[in-house]
Structures are given as C-alpha cells and as structure tokens.
Amino acid sequence: MGIKDWPADTRPREKLLQQGGRALTDAELLAIFLRTGLPGKSAVDLARELLGAFGGLAAICQADLAGFCAAPGLGRAKYALLQAVLEMARRVLAEEVARGDVLQSPAQVVDYLRLLLRHKAHEVFGVVLLDAQNRVISWEELFRGTLTQTAVYPREVVKSALANNAAGVIFAHNHPSGVAEPSRADEMLTRQLKEALALVDVRVLDHFIVAGSGVLSFAERGLL
User: In terms of Cα–Cα distance, which of 169, 100, 101 is closest to 138?
Assistant: First the structure.
C-alpha cells in the first residue's frame, strides 16, 4: 500500500500540516524529503532503512556526496537539495542571532555554531565577532587544521577583531573525534587569546567546542 492510500491523518505531509513538524518521527520527516520510495517500498519504509543504514538523521545530513549517493533512493539531486536546506537553516539562524543580544539567546548561538561546525571532517577554529551591544557582526573561520589539531595565531584573531571594530568575541571550534571535552591545549589557547584581546579592550564572552550533537561552553565550565 502506498502512502497515498493511508488514512489522511497518518500521511507524513498531511500530519505535518495539521500537527506541525515536531509531531513527526525522523522517518516521517525524511520521507517528506524523499518524496517517493522504491518499487515495493513506501517513502517511509525507505526512510527507515536509510536511518538504520546511516545511523540516524544527523549522519545522513553529514554524509559526503559519495556516501550519500551510494545509498538506494538517493542521488546527486537529493544531495544538492539537502545541502540547500541545511544552508537555509544556517542563514535563518544567523539572521535570528544577529538581531539581538547573544547573551539573551544562548541557545540560538549554540544551534548556529552546531550547524556551522558539526559536519566538518577537519578541525576548524572560528570567531563570532560582536558589537558593543553583543550583537553579531559576523562569523569568521580563521584557521583550519587536521583531524586532531590546528594552529591558531593570536595576532590574527586580534587583527580580525580590530578590522571589524568588535567589542567582544565568542570563539568556537570543532572536535571531529566527537568528544567535546577541552584539551589542555584548548584551555591554554583560550587564556592566550583572552590576554591578547584584553590589550585592545575586546572581551571574550565564551569559547564553544562542537563535537557531533554535543556542545561544551568554557564559560559554563568556569574555564574563562
């Protein structure tokens, strides 16, 4: 039986329109994205298989082009569509975060940084530049490294803050290993950057580590 033959209130698209996206399972959401299944399989059946094969919705969203296209029912067109959806989500969050004081919307900042960094296969260090009202000026990816380390130069961070007339910053980097715990090197770097920026009157509000779906805050840990 195809999805079109299901009762209206159980079809994923109709269910979403009636009850909202939060009412849907991962398989139902993915089925709407897929639109069609395969011979003998509904879109929901295919979605369940894909979730099992990849290990979850996050893994599908983070898959590279080759891995994504190798799965049945997927392909380059759907990969392009997925990347467009993810990029729209990043831009929407960026706009929302930029509208107000980041200290009043920490969850939005975390969601934004998670979308920016969680899918990276290599380590990336960046900075959210803030004005005097703690509003976002921009996000700058400053350094890129290997799977385990990256070289971060304090003078480049200071230069970026001054060039953008920033009054404050939030640091962020990812751990491709999936472990969000800060290393001694992470703690030492944060102290060095904070000291360097203090010389030019730029405040460090926080440093986030993004590891998969997990995010660690240095401020919450008392590490700033």
Answer: 169
